Amino acid sequence: MATRRWAWLTGALAGGSLAWILRPHFAPGALILVVGAVMLFATLIGELILALTLLRSTPRVVPPADAQPADGRVDLLEMTGAIGEPNQRDLRFSSFRALRPIENGPPPERLASGSTPPLLGRITLISLFAGRDHRPWSDDEIAQAHAALFRAGAWIEREAIRWKAPVNVTLSDTYFVVDGDDDGGANDVEMTFEPEGDGVGPLEARAVTKALTDMSRAALRLGFRDAVDWMEQVRSRIDADSLVWLLHPRRAGRSLAIPLDLTELAGVSLAVCYARESSFPEPLSRSPFTDPVTIVHELLHLFGASDKYGVPLRSYPPRSVSSRDIMRLNEFGLSQLRIDRQTAWEIGWDVREEGPLIPPRD
Ligand SMILES: [Zn+2]
């Protein structure tokens, strides 16, 4: 919080100078009072500026023209011309096999690159299930992961209703699978420490590069030229404002998001959601568990939300972040979590009016 630090610094300097000037006229005790009062005043001004910038900010972004109000429902969206093999556990979804050419269809558009988009309009989630350690994802496990995506999507819509944000989440009816004949470089895992709030946390070195390499490798195996070609072709067959790519490695590890402004491959943005959360990458010792909290948390990163754990709540403007904010990860279940004002603002929602909490349905 740069503003707060500046307020303290300015207050200390102003108080100190004033005390120096008034030195001949006052007793030392009175001088300390002067310094204290000036510092307090400067801090209050700083807090006021912070609170005003957040509360008074008009909507940062304009929603897509045809955006509909959130309805709390997550529907399936057809990938036009996709040929797939139905999932044996959940026949609504199919595993990708090929793309049928579209007659007289427009050529695929270039992927957007640069800054993160707002979480507004029609958002479609697309998954790549990557096997690991010689174990592919089973239809059953994929169906369970989709159930978690439904829960994650419904939760986002519930919060969108509360903030009156026009958001409609859909799931692609076609998903991608690559088998697990590699170990994801398991034998040469190198760890590094990344800034995390006020401290540092362990992260697999070059995690971003590795995830992008995984995507490129998967693109080749699925018959595309590269990751960009794959994403562009799919983009042109999904009727949505934003696509969210989810990579599900069948391993334990630390989930991460690669938003547009952090990617090393222009336009390729995705969330890596491990089948189990752990600080260090390792083979699964139990069956996969796709956590809807992880899905939502990483997805929000793709739309500009920042982490809010590791820093004291008091460092945020009053009533802008609570311990239940999804980007703080204090609670384990979605029903305990919410999108607080600061996070809502970061993902481009209009934060002038916050609705009451909506009790969860499940
Ligand atoms: Zn995070």
Name the poorly predicted regions: none
In CATH, what is the class of the largest domain? Alpha Beta
Structural class: alpha/beta
Radius of gyration: 24 Å
Shape type: elongated
Distance between the termini: 37 Å
Percent of residues in helices comes to 25-40%
Number of individual domains: 2
Look at the structure and give the mean pLDDT. Answer: 88
Number of helices: 7
Q: What proportion of the residues form beta strands (DSSP E)?
A: 15-25%
Fill in the CATH topology of the largest domain: Collagenase (Catalytic Domain)
Keywords: Membrane, Transmembrane, Transmembrane helix
Structure description:
The chain is α/β, with parallel strands linked by helices. It has two domains: 2-55; 75-346, Collagenase (Catalytic Domain) (3-Layer(aba) Sandwich), CATH 3.40.390. It contains seven helices and 13 strands. It has helices at 2-22, 28-55, 139-162, 207-221, 227-235, 292-302, 341-346, and strands at 75-77, 82-86, 94-99, 121-130, 167-172, 174-178, 191-196, 199-204, 242-249, 252-253, 256-258, 270-272, 276-277. The strands form three sheets. Strands 1, 2, 3, 4, 5, 6, 9, 11 and 12 form a nine-stranded mixed beta sheet that branches. Strand 4, helix 3 and strand 5 form a beta-alpha-beta unit. The longest helix has 28 residues, at 28-55. It is elongated and about 85 Å long. The protein starts with a helix and ends in a 16-residue tail after the last helix. 38% of the residues are buried. The model has no long low-confidence stretch (mean pLDDT 88). The structure holds zinc ion (ZN). Zinc ion binds at residues 297, 301, 307.
